[in-house]
What does this fold into?
Amino acid sequence: MSFNKGIRRFIFEHLESTNRILQRMKYAGGTFSGPKTTICADKITIVGFDCSYLGRKPTVDTIGKIMNWGDCENTTDVRAFLGTA
It folds into this structure.
């Protein structure tokens, strides 16, 4: 960045996006849960995936559910499996 050489562009753009989201939540009257909020973490689990700077991969629990899943017998079973996978 020309005005601050110590900040990489993608970090600056991410902070701008985060600020925009927070402002929209404020104007809409939204709230955040402190215990459920994670900021500046090396790794976080979101909807069955461990997300980190290395990328994302399914959690051990999710892999176990998929490996032990029985045969699908109808469309409801297929939808349930796809929701897990």
Residues 9-28 form the longest helix (20 residues). The CA atoms of residues 49 and 59 lie 5 Å apart. The chain has three helices and three strands.
